[in-house]
Write a structure and sequence with these properties.
heterodimer; A: 111 residues; mainly beta; 5-stranded antiparallel sheet; globular; B: mainly beta; 7-stranded mixed sheet; 11 strands
Chain lengths: 111, 114
């Protein structure tokens, strides 16, 4: 089976940096995704890691350690529009690829 | 380039009824996955369709069934609705069963069961 854990809620200040952690357990790991979901909207893709290390994309970075079953999403220069849920998702291999999501971390950005 | 489209966007049903939700994948995509997202939760994997067959299934009862058509569009059927089936149902498309890219989501169908 699969298990993905991430904090339920986080609060940060506009302009600051926030790190959202995710730990996972899966038997057929084949990549880790981060998605952003604003309230009432569909999830949208942010980042993808399949090898260990840091992937940077503008204000967003994502890190993966496969040996530790650990990832984090780093958001820099926070803006009010970054208030959203951030979903950690693992692609599991087995008869085809399927993507399993964590419960999501709701981020509140305050002025 | 049309993205993933779902219909209806909202619907209300009563317990015991049946519902059908529809999804058209993004142009060029042939694999459709369905997810159930309860309020405040992450999307839960229901099943995945490829080449008109159910390829993988999550931990959902047989009341949840689906279909994929030759044009890659898909339907999700839920029978004998329960109050707990109230959720946002998301369709996600990708290219190929062993797709290495991200999922593209539709806006979802919000089902309320009274």
């Amino acid at each position: 089976g699969q298990n993905i854990d991430q904090p339920t809620e986080m609060t940060a200040t506009e302009g600051a940096i926030v790190q959202i952690n995710c730990t996972y357990q899966t038997s057929g790991f084949n990549g880790l995704f981060w998605y952003q979901q604003h309230a009432g909207e569909a999830p949208t893709f942010l980042s993808y890691n399949v090898l260990d290390g840091l992937e940077e994309k503008g204000r967003f970075s994502s890190f993966l350690s496969r040996s530790k079953g650990y990832s984090y999403l780093l958001l820099k220069e926070l803006q009010m529009k970054d208030s959203a849920s951030y979903l950690c998702a693992v692609r599991d291999r087995g008869g085809g690829f399927k993507t399993i999501f964590g419960a999501g971390t709701r981020l509140f950005v305050k002025a | 380039d049309a993205g993933v489209t779902q219909s209806p966007t909202h619907l209300i049903k009563t317990r015991g009824q049946q519902v059908t939700l529809r999804c058209s994948p993004k142009s060029g995509h042939d694999t459709v996955s369905w997810y159930q997202q309860a309020l405040g939760q992450g999307p839960q994997f229901i099943f995945q369709y490829y080449e008109e067959e159910e390829r993988q299934r999550g931990n959902f009862p047989d009341r949840f069934s689906g279909h994929q058509f030759p044009n890659y569009s898909s339907e999700l059927n839920v029978n004998a609705l329960l109050l707990g089936d109230s959720a946002l149902y998301l369709c996600a498309s990708s290219s190929g069963l062993f797709n290495t890219g991200e999922l593209f989501f539709g806006e979802g169908s919000r089902l309320t069961v009274l």
